[in-house]
Amino acid sequence: MTSARDFGLCIGRLPTGPLNAITDIAGVTVGHHTVRDGGAATGVTAILPHSGNLFRRKVRAGVEIINGFGKSVGLMQVAELGTVETPILLTNTFGVGNCANVLIHRAITDNPEIGRRTSTVNPLVFECNDGEINDIQALHVRAEHALAALGDAHGGPLAQGAIGAGTGMTAFGFKAGIGTASRTMQIGGHEHLLGALVLANFGNAGDLVLPDGRRPDPRGMEQAEKGSVIVILATDLPLGDRQLRRVARRAGAGLARLGAFWGNGSGDIALCFTTADMVEHEPPTPFQPIRHLAEGRIDIPFRAAAEATQEAVLNALCAAAPAVGRSGRHFPSLADWLKENPLPRRSF
C-alpha cells in the first residue's frame, strides 16, 4: 500500500508508532465494508475503541466542530457528557440513519436494559458527501453493510484509500478516502501513543500544500469548497474530556497545513477519545478518581494531533487509485502526480 513516506514526504518532528496507524493504540480496531454495485461507490468504516461492552465501559472523549455543515449523529451528547458508548461509524451523508439504527440495535442486544431499566444509548455516526462519484440518492448504504464493517474490525495494519466509507471521497481535486497515521509521545518518562484516522473529502483543487512546499495541480476545474473531513483521534494518554476536546481542536492545525480553510459548505469535525481510565456505566461508588495530564505538558499531544492528522490525509490521497466521477470528471491519484514530479536530488 502506497503512503506519503514512500515519496519522501516526512511530516513533523515526532516519531510514528510501530504501524503508523490508529491501531497502534492497544485495543483499538477498525473495519471496512465497501459497496460497489449499480452506480454505488460508497461504504462504511467502523472504529471500535475497545473490544468489550462500550455501553458498560465508556471511553472519555471530546469533540470539536471546526465547521458544522454536516449531518452526524451523537455529537451533542459527547460534547455534554464527555464519553463515547458505541462504536464509531463513518459513511456517506444519506447512510447515517441506517448506521445509527444498527448501533442502537447492537447496543440493545448486548444490554437489554437500555431504554427500560437504564438510559437510552447514544449512537455515534459521522458522514461526508460522496456524491461526486457515488449515486448518493440511491441510498446504497444498508444495515447489513454497517454490520459487515463492524464484523471486519481488527487491529494491525490497515487498508487505506478508496475503501469503506472512503470509497467515493475526493480531496483537493484528487481521489481520496480513508487515511491513518500515528505518533509516539514521551511524557514523564513514559511512552504514549496518539493515532488518527481520517475520512478525507475536502479542499479545493490546487490548494493542497505538501510538507516540502510543493503545490500539486490536478488540472481539475476549481470549485467552491463544499466537501468535508472527519478526524478520529485515539490515544492511551490519560486526559480529561476538556483536554480531549483541546487535543481534537488541534486536528484543525493539521488540516490547515495542507491548505484547507474550512469553507462555508464544508463539514469538518474532529473527535478524540482515550482508552485510559474508562468510565463505568454504573460506577460502584459516588466519587470516581480521574487522572489527567498536567496542562504544562499538553503541547506534546497537541503536536501529535496536528502531525498525525496531516499525514493521515496525505496517506488517504496517496493510497487512493484514480477514479472518474458521475459527471465524467477525472480525479487523479496523488501518488501518480508524485511519481511524475519526484523531489529533486540534493547535490552536496
TrEMBL record:
Keywords from the UniProt entry: Aminopeptidase, Hydrolase, Protease
InterPro entries for this protein: ArgJ-like_dom_sf, Peptidase_S58_DmpA
Signal peptide region: none
One Gene Ontology MF term: aminopeptidase activity
Superkingdom of origin: Bacteria
Protein family (similarity comment): Belongs to the peptidase S58 family.
Name this protein carries in UniProt: Aminopeptidase
Species name: Manganibacter manganicus
Source organism phylogeny: Bacteria, Pseudomonadati, Pseudomonadota, Alphaproteobacteria, Hyphomicrobiales
